[in-house]
Amino acid sequence: MASRGLGGLALLALLAGGSPGAAALAASSGPGGAELEQAAGRLAGAVTAQGEAQRGADSWALERDALRDEIRREGETLAWLEAALVRRQDYIARREAVVAGLRDSARELAALERGLEPVLDAVLVRLEELVAADLAFLPRERAERLEMLRETLGDYGLAPGEKLRRFLEALQVEAGYGALVEAWDEAVDLEGARVQGRVLRLGRAAALFLSRDGARAARLVPGAPGWEPLGASEARTLAEALEMHDHRRAFELLALPVGPARLEAPAPGQAPESAPEQGGVRP
Fold first, then answer.
1. What gap in Å lies between CA 216 and CA 234, rounded to an integer?
2. Contacts 24+ apart (CB under 8 A), 6-15
3. What burial class does residue 19 get, using C-beta atoms within 10 Å of its C-beta: 0-12 exposed, 13-18 middle, 19+ buried?
4. pLDDT digits (tens, 9 = 90+) for 264-276
5. Could you tell me if 237 and 255 are in contact, meaning their C-beta atoms sit under 8 angstroms apart?
6. 217 near 238, Cβ under 8 Å?
7. Rounded Cα gap, residues 79 and 74, in angstroms
8. How much is the pTM?
C-alpha cells in the first residue's frame, strides 16, 4: 500500500513536469490509473492554460505600455497645438487691429486729400500776390517756380502728397530769401540803357545795383518792376557794402537805402510826406 502511494506521488510529479511517460506510468500503477490519468490531463491542461494566460498578460502589458507612450505623445502634441492656436489667434487679433487702424487712416487721408487741393489753390494765389508785391529780384527763377506750381495743381495724375511736397519746397525757398544776403553780376535796364554791374540783395529788405564803374546806383522798389536810380552818395555807400560782402573791407555799419519808394516832391503849400527810410545795414 505504501509502495502504491509512493507511485502515485511520482506519477503526479511526472505529470506536473509534463513528462511524455506519464500515461504509461499511470497505466502500470493499478486500478486507480484511469483517475490519475484524467487528473494528469486536467493538470496539464491547467498548466498550458496558465502559460497561455501569462503570455497573453505579457503581451497586453507591452501593448498597454505602448498605448501609454502614444497617449503621452499625442497629449504633448495636443498641448503644443493648443498653445500655437492661442498664439495664432492673438496674432490675428493684432493684425486685424492694425488693418482697422489702416482703414481709419485711409479714410482720414482721403478726406484730407479732398480738402487739400482747395487749400493749395489758395496758397498759390497768396504766393503769386506776395511775389508781385515783393522786390523784383530773381524774376525768371521765381516766375518759373510759380509756373511749376500751377502745372502741379493741374496734374491729376500726381499724388496729393507729391503736390504738397512741391508746395512746401517752394514756400521754403521763398521764406529763405528773407534771411539771405547775396551779391551777383547782372546787366539791368537803368534809365533806358542796359548797364553792367553788381546786385546786392539784403534779404527782402533791399535789392541794390551798382554799375561796374561805380558811378551809378539804383534799387528795386517793392511792387515795381524796374530799377529806381539813386544818388552819388548812395553809390559810394553801396560800393563800400559790396567790398564788405566780398571781404575786401572791414565790416562796419552803413546807411543803405532800405525802405519804401522815394516820393515825389510835395506841391507848394502841401505838407511833405515821409522820406524814405535809411537803414543801418551790415552786409
1. 9
2. 8/32, 8/36, 11/36, 11/40, 12/36, 12/39, 12/40, 12/43, 15/39, 15/40, 15/43, 15/44
3. middle
4. 444 444 444 433 4
5. yes
6. yes
7. 9
8. 0.53
Whether the predicted pLDDT of 15 surpasses 80: no
Q: Which amino acid appears at position 2 of this protein?
A: A
Which residues are bridge partners to 186 per DSSP? 197
Residue 233, pLDDT above cutoff 50: yes
Q: Which residue has the higher pLDDT, 19 or 42?
A: 42
> Is the per-residue pLDDT at 240 higher than 60?
yes
Q: What is the mean pLDDT of residues 129-148?
A: 91
Could you tell me which residues come within 8 angstroms of residue 138 by beta carbon, excluding any fewer than 6 positions away?
A: none
Contacts of 105-110 with C-beta under 8 Å, sequence gap 24+, read none
Domain boundaries, the chain: 113-175, 181-261+277-281
Question: Cα(213)–Cα(168) distance, rounded to whole angstroms?
Answer: 41
SS3 call for 279: strand
**101 Cβ contact list (under 8 Å, min separation 6):** none
Task: Spell out the alpha helix ranges (H) of the chain.
Answer: 2-16, 22-27, 33-133, 139-154, 160-177, 232-245
| Residue where the block lists cell 534799387 | 219
pLDDT classification of 99: cutoffs 50, 70, 90 = very high
Mean pLDDT of 71-95: 92
Length of the chain: 283
Cell 527763377 belongs to residue: 141
Residue 117: which region, alpha, beta or left (left: phi > 0; alpha: psi -120 to 50)?
Answer: alpha
**Predicted pLDDT of residue 197:** 95
